[in-house]
Amino acid sequence: MCTLDQRGNLFLLTLTGDDEHRLGPTLVDSIRSALAQVKSQATPGSALITTAHGKFFSNGLDLPWAQAAGSSSFRDRLGQLVNNFKLIIADLVSLPMPTIAAVSGHAAAAGFMLAISHDYVLMKNDRSVLYMSELDIGLTFPDYFMAMLKSKISDPAARRDVMLRGKKVKAEEAVRMGIVDSAHDSAESTVEAAVRLAEQLSGRKWNGEVYAEIRKAMHPEVCGLLGLSHRAVVAPRL
Asked: Quick check: pTM over 0.85?
């Protein structure tokens, strides 16, 4: 599950419950409900921070839930998970405010994707890793995963290591690879840094619709796969 707290213009979305925060139907619905609430309450100067309790930021899609249906239904359940998680990415990409992931633990597979679908990624600098596990467990990448990874990781060598080596990337190396914006000593300091950044961004009082449309224009391939259209918005502040 997740909780949503509001501090003035800032929204803090926290993944709670079991330590792995696997993205199954219940958690996906909970996150989408929270994001819908954030969107409905957005004002110029709003910002979102997403973080998590425990060892994991998120350990990806809920594969144990898919496997519990038996081998004959595993593929169908996996497809359901992939399609449901796609809706969270679409929600984040179209959210009318800056978004920051405060990665307080391991982020694997879809958990990695959840982190980099935010505008900024801050990460705890300890044994926590970013890890695309698909190659190691024998799964291909959904098309929107591929598009997001290409859009967010500009260095071809870094993309290769993440996607074709299954590299487990710690915070400081993730900063050098251009995946993470900054590394911090603890979960608490990661969230504190995210709050400071959110306050800086919210102080600009940007129009949320303009912000969202510019973000979508930055990631055209991703938006095409997510079914998000781009439109011109004119809201002059001259």
From this structure: yes
**210, two tokens:** 């303009």
DSSP, collapsed to helix, strand or coil, labels residue 186 as: coil
Q: Could you tell me which residues are beta bridge partners of residue 124?
A: 184
Q: Where are the alpha helices (DSSP H) in the chain?
A: 25-40, 63-67, 71-93, 110-116, 134-137, 143-152, 156-164, 171-176, 187-202, 208-218, 220-226
Which tokens belong to 158?
A: 């870094």
CA angle 43, 49, 51 (to 5 degrees): 155
Q: What is the pLDDT of residue 19?
A: 85
Do residues 4 and 13 touch, judged by C-beta distance below 8 A? yes
The order of strands in the sheet holding 106-108 is 56-58, 106-108, 130-131
* Torsion sign across C-alpha atoms 176, 170, 148, 145: positive
User: Would you state the pLDDT for residue 39?
Assistant: 97
Check residue 237 and give its pLDDT: 66
* pLDDT profile of the chain (238 residues), mean per 10: 94 92 96 98 96 95 90 91 97 98 97 98 95 96 97 96 97 97 96 97 95 96 93 71
Q: Identify the structural domains of the chain with CATH numbers, from first to last.
A: 2-226 (3.90.226.10)
* Nearest Cα residue to 193 out of 33, 1, 34, 51: 51
| Gap between the terminal Cα atoms of the chain | 43
